[in-house]
Design goal:
Elements: H1 2-16, H2 18-43, H3 48-81, H4 86-102, H5 113-123, H6 127-157, H7 159-167, H8 175-214, H9 219-229, H10 235-240, H11 242-251, H12 253-282, H13 287-307, H14 309-326, H15 343-349
Helix pairs in contact: 2-3, 2-6, 2-8, 3-9, 8-9, 8-12, 8-14, 11-12
Length: 350
Amino acid sequence: MIGLGLIVGVLYILWQIRQVLMLVFAAVVFATVINKLVQQLVKVGIKRGIAVAIALLMIACLLILAAWFVIPALIDRLPEYTLFSEEGFDQLQVWYTNIAGMLPGNTLSDLDLADLLSRLTQWSPNLIGRLVALFTNSLDFGLNFLLVLVTTIMLLASPSSYRRVLLLAFPKFYRTRADNILSQCESSLSGWAFGIVFEMIVITLFSGIGLALIGVPLPTVNALIAGLLTTIPNVGPALSVVPPALIGLAVEPWMAVAVFALYFVIQQFEGLVLTPLVMKQQASLLPAITLVAQVISAIFFGFLGLFLALPLVIVIQIWAKELLVKDILDHWPPPRRQPRSGFIYSDVRQ
């Protein structure tokens, strides 16, 4: 009973700190992937500390460059190409008038678009509370990001030390085997990261070409947004369609429909062909397991769980295969065969 109570207590504590554990796992994933780049820099004669700084600086420069290219374009040009501009609002007013005239009984004939938007704004309850919640969520995101960043740097500084500490949790006779399993996890996580980068490149190219053929303004910017949001399963592709759809709607209504059709085809190609193929080759993940893992992880851990669903299921799958299946179930002793009794045979002979 005492042992059962301790197990229940430990599981309860782990459940209460599950978000912190997911943040630590995110740092482990990032450190594992970045460590591959660090190892390549170390091979050319660069000291590890300097190699870590160079790798982090390279990644930061790429992210800043992408943000510098995308964010100013969205701020400066998005209102110009969407319904938020003066010309776009006038066009929206014309559409609203036409739709209002088509409604039976002229329900909206005496209410112009500005009054309708004003009333909708007034109907929005607790606006200040929502702004406070937005600020709080932003602060939480910043603190979580800082925790992940600092933990990642610490892990990159001396990964072998943390690995040795982790191996101490296993019995002495099993530590070599556990070290081999950790190496498999490292290789699979690196393959997963390579697959994500490959998907980002493919989605960016397909989106850019498709938007350029449709004639939507800012095709490169929108394509980069689609590629970057590919890293967020399910939610990212849905969000990436919003900017080009708004731009296309302001230019010509049929463009918005064409954008939705283009992104639907791209997302189907990504979900049914590209992701299963890449993940199967790089991380040996089955499509059904991938989908179920994303749903379960999102339910228990929220958005962070959705983002980390694939690396989490990669690690769980490797440990289940190597530890549970190969080392335990494959060597499970068969039941001993009972000697055949001659009691019935002797009775028959008699």
